[in-house]
Every structure is written in C-alpha cells, then in structure tokens.
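Hey, I'm writing a tutorial for new members on how sequence and structure tokens pair up, and I'd like a real worked example in the thread rather than a made-up one. If someone can provide the structure for the chain below, I'll link this post from the tutorial.
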Amino acid sequence: MLKEIQQVQQQARLLYTETQIEAALNSMAQAITQKLHDQNPLILCVINGGIIVTGQLLPKLNFPLTLDCAYATRYRNNTAGSDLQWQYKPATPLQQRNVLIIDDILDEGHTLQGIVDYCRLAGASSVHTAVLLDKNLGRAKPLAADFVGLPVDNHYLFGYGMDYKGYLRNAAGIFACKETS
C-alpha cells in the first residue's frame, strides 16, 4: 500500500500552494466573522476531512463560539462514495443554535446536505456551511456552500484534509491525482 501512496504522491499535480490556501482561509475567516460574529455559533467540524480546515480557521475567528464535530461519511477510505453512514453525531444540543459546518470540500454535496438536514431537524436556528474547496462538476448540487475558499476542477484530490485511500490528508497543498485512462 505504501508504494501505491508514494507513487500517487510523486505523480500528483500541485493545484494550490500553502500560501494560496492561507490567503483563501483568511478571506473565508473575514466573511464568516462578518456574518456570524454576534451569533454565538456552534462550529461543527466534519471529521476527518474538515479537521485541518477547521483547525486553520478557528484561530482566525476572533469572536465567541463553541466547537463540536460530526462524522458522517460516504467514502470510508475508498475513492468512490456510497450511502451516508453516521459514525458520530454532535454531542452539543443543536436546538436554537446557529451552526457553522466546516468541511474540506463540497464535492457532490450529499454528505454535507445530510449533515445540514440533521442540524435542521435537530432544531438549529440557522445552518451555514464553509468549505475550503468547491469542486466544479458541471452539474447542479443539492446545496451551495455559504463560504468557499477556492474553486477546483473535477479531479481526485488530496491534501489539507482530503485523502487518497485514507492517506495524504497531511499533504502541504492541494494536489490532483494523475489522471488514469
């Protein structure tokens, strides 16, 4: 497995550098602060992909907030998604809370939509979404993110929380896997 991971990493194409990502995170933080600074939001980090993005954004949000996480997945360390499975639901009561869900990427949108729906059903006053990347699929998605860092074309990606078969989430940049024919 490690040989495959090393090969994928060596053949990948860098799409966004750390500097570009940091600028996008700063811009997202400004927009989030403008919208939510007086709403005492509950931040929901989507595990595992949203860990790095959430960790980078939180110190930039200079206002009162609380933090929890949600773990719903369609991929389970595979490269293709299937049905949504909940591994962990937020422990914090969502009733009458303003919620900001933070994830790494808005791909097809099914996972993020499922988490949004859960928050609304649990009584959240408002639900906002923030993603580092919004993937251009050339078709409609079930939702649009409220806060987006960077656009990206339809590639299989890794880095900054996104993985390749469970690996490479820690890559310092956003990378596209080599296209296979």
